[in-house]
Amino acid sequence: MVRNTILILLLLLPTLSVRAQEKIKGDRNVTIVETEVNSFKKIALYEKFDIVLIEGTQASVEIETDENLHDVIEFSVIDSVLSFKTNAKIVSSKKMEIKVRYTKDLQEIELKDDAEISALTSLDIDNFFLKTYDNSRAYLNIKSSDFKFIGNGKSKSRLNIESSMTNLELNDNTHLEALLVTDSTKVSSYMRSKAVVEGSSKNLELNAISSSEFMGKNFTVNTCQLTIEDSCDATLNVTDQISINATGNSDVFLYGTGKITMERFTDSASLQKKEF
User: What distance in Å separates the CA atoms of residue 208 and residue 196, rounded to the nearest whole number?
Assistant: First the structure.
């Protein structure tokens, strides 16, 4: 049985190698093709695609590229998920622009590899979930009653968020730049992630672990609950009250006039009061 399996794999290797080497160049004759698709709740980009979002009443995909490349880009809606893939490696193109028209059904976007997504206008969605992985990029303005973001790998995102509740989770080396106007904000940052945040929030719950960095000098919050461990840095601007639980080699830089409550402060953790 093992020998048969090995033999099958050896027979498949040449086929897989040929497919992996398939390449195509654009013919420089640019055309536009728009295709209506079923409404979708999620967009999943797992390859090097650059997508621009446009709100509409009918979901569709519009591709402007070299004429011979249209057949290389495949897309489909399966189980309410719009996904894209290529059946050959595009070496060059005169133009490559993909616009996706979404409807009110959209709830989630997931990016992997080198995928990039942006929007011409703000995404006005009640409950919205954004996930980024690898080297993906997201540049979005979002209005939502409940917004959740999870960043992984070396992904980078630049977000403008207006929301009642905002939940941000940053992992690995992910980098987030955000302008937030929210009532309640929860941030969990891990493993060398970095967040640069501006704006305002009535309440902030920040958990920083494992060499992560949170820069919120220009992020004004009324109240804050801070838990910080290991070698993390947190820069905060609190107007009313902050409770601090700090351990390890963590550093807290505090702006504002908020009352400070030390729940726990051990090891070589430090607190520096700063002035603007």
Answer: 13
